[in-house]
Amino acid sequence: MRRTIWTSTATATALLLITLGAGGAQAELKTTGEGKEQRLDPAQFDPDSRARYELFAQRCTQCHAMNRPISALTNGKTPISGDTFDREGIKKYVVKMMRKPNSGISREDAKAIVDFLTTARDLAEKAP
Ligand code: HEC
């Protein structure tokens, strides 16, 4: 009897998890390609974020491939230092990149890119 109750509870929990998982599947950060060819899929962003995506794609791939920031976005950790890539971490790293010699990133660019990366990180965090 005890065993039966335990089993049905486990089944109910499993079903609940599956249902929640299916609901959450709509929010995830979509990427295309692999390695140095990896890109964020621009179609997943609303028009405002898409304009910021273009700026990010141009400014943040001058010295390294896009997979470096994408890795930070999907894992919530920067790929080299293993630093937290949350709201604060995003600001810290965009400023760090902006200050590199010849980054070509203005303060206005940096603000827009921080906004964009925060939106993208929110999507990644909602992923199942
Ligand atoms: C002027 C060259 C340059 C530009 C432009 C640049 N980066 Fe970087 N990036 C680097 C270098 C060099 C590193 C290696 C680690 C370091 O020096 O911080 C790096 C490392 C990184 C890392 C990994 C950091 C770690 O410690 O794990 C991330 C994430 C990153 N860049 C994101 C970006 C983003 C986002 C942008 C656009 C705002 C950008 N980069 C623009 C040169 C650049």
Short account of what is shown:
By secondary structure, this protein is mainly α. It is built from five helices and two strands. It has a single domain (27-126), classed as Cytochrome Bc1 Complex, Chain D, domain 2.
Describe it for me?
The protein has 128 residues and is mainly alpha-helical. The chain has one domain (27-126): Cytochrome c-like domain (Cytochrome Bc1 Complex, Chain D, domain 2, Orthogonal Bundle). It has five helices and two strands, in the order H-E-E-H-H-H-H. A two-stranded antiparallel ribbon has the order 1-2. Helix 4 runs antiparallel to helix 5. The model is unreliable at 19-26 (pLDDT under 50). The structure holds heme C (HEC). The site of heme C (HEC) has 22 residues, from helix 3 and helix 4.
